[in-house]
Task: structure prediction
Amino acid sequence: MDSQRNILLIALALVSFMLFNQWQAAKNPAPAAQQAQSSSTLPAPSFADELDPAPGQQAASAKTITVTTDVLTLSIDTVGGDVITANLNEYAAELESEETFVLLQNEQGHQFIAQSGLVGPQGIDLSSTNRPAYSVSADSFNLADGQDEVRIPLTYQANGLEYTKTFIVKRGSYAIDVEYDVVNKSGNNATFGMYAHLRQSVVDAGGSLTMPTYRGGAYSTEDTRYKKYSFDDMQDRNLSLNLANGQGWAAMIQHYFATAWIPRNEPGTNLYTRVIGNLGDIGVRMPNKTIADGDSANFKATLWVGPKLQSDMAEVAPNLDLVVDYGWLWFIAKPLHTLLSFIQGIVSNWGIAIICLTFIVRGAMYPLTKAQYTSMAKMRMLQPKLQAMRERIGDDRQRMSQEMMELYKKEKVNPLGGCLPILLQMPIFIALYWALMESVELRHSPFFGWITDLSAQDPYYILPLLMGASMFLIQKMSPTTVTDPMQQKIMTFMPVMFTFFFLFFPSGLVLYWLVSNIVTLIQQTLIYKALEKKGLHSK
Result:
């Protein structure tokens, strides 16, 4: 086994990896919008009869208020008290754009809003077109300098009941607390419970072979830490899960950003999904409370609407940080991201952090790399003996295998020694791929010169071309035992194929592979010089 065959292993692993990504994306397609269906034809969640799911237009808004903090700009419809738009003030819509990224929106053809209300015998959110019109003291609320929190109370009265729906926003936070305070002066008991769901138009998530993305539902319960639930899943079967201890959340996620409703310590909460027409809902329905005449009650949930910031999300709810989906190699990707973030905190440039990370990873693997080249050199020295053995034994494969193993044992050669480093490097490569793909911190992060976004492909393809050239140099420097003309042509074509694939990878990942190749060239030179002194290296 030599380094050129290692290149073939890398190619096979890379192609398999991309095909696996595409298969994963195909498992969770976003279906085309469906025609509106009668609610009676839908497998209903436990509260479906309480809130009319008709997909008709919501009642005309009495007023829309604006809430502005340092990180969020929200629009809240006073009819129902829904969050109908959310702009992320610190994230640009596009690279070098002056417009901020819009996460929630209520546009014709694409709706993505956060709804919440009270349902039950005395519920006030009776249907999608019959919801309370709240009163509010101002048209806009701003987090002033030096202020850490703003409370936005919306009030409503009906049938002797006083309702106050309060939004609580905090400085530097993407978590919004939503509280209902209800005072019963009706002369009778009043029973109702809170629901909160995310409603989004069913749209195609997009993505590509080299950069697959997911847009759809996800949830967490005490039994399932994290699970995706796509629009396709919602159409096949409405989800209805009981949160016995009240711990869990329901979310809509997309590339780099997430929105989630988190109930607050409400045992018996129901987590549900449904699809009505071309709209998909995922949310939570908290259990009813009965308020005696003269008493009051409080209902509370938290809405996360923002980027996938792992440390912040972990503080808001258990397992919410898992929406940063590192795939099946999460146990490698997460430490890599932590190390990368630590380095970036020192060097203040994500590209330099990636270069430093590459040197650390390859430095840690140096003993294995040295063993690889030493094994390859010994294998080359055994080639004359192996050839003589083949001529002597002929087609007796069993005898040939036995004598080869005896020869390897006698000469202290591990025939698989050349494979181990590459087998270890591929999981690191795949894990880093997901770490870079899922890290919102790298979104629109520049390196130097023409690389203005490490999460996007190189606009001029310079890094992929340099990567291909470095791979070609590695191939030329590596002695080979391959004599078959077809295999030689395949090996020669490998750098070209890799260059083509890497044209479409995020530039941060290409930078990692380029620097890794440069480190390989340096290590090869040093190791071969040492082997030549020992008389082991020969072409």
